[in-house]
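REQUEST
  id: r-88c1
  op: predict_structure
  target: DUF2653 family protein
  payload:
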Amino acid sequence: MSLTVLSMDEIINAICLHMAERKGVQATDVQVELSWEEDTGYTAEVWTQGRSQYIVESNIIEAILRYLHTEYNIRAYREDVRLELDEEITAVVHG
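RESPONSE
  id: r-88c1
  status: 200
  body:
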């Protein structure tokens, strides 16, 4: 069983690429701020075209799964991905 760890920067890149594709904009036109709070868990605020929206952990994991497949050729499943908070937010993928 292999273990892949994505840094916070890679998670942000994954969300940028995912949201850019969904909104029909360039990934460079997307800004993301990841956060963790006790009452809401992992969330990201995403800005595209001057608008802000919040996405929740399941949306973040969806972006990570797509990123793993396109960038690393890793086919992972939702249950294989766990977000963790240490000094920064990381994604640990068992596969």
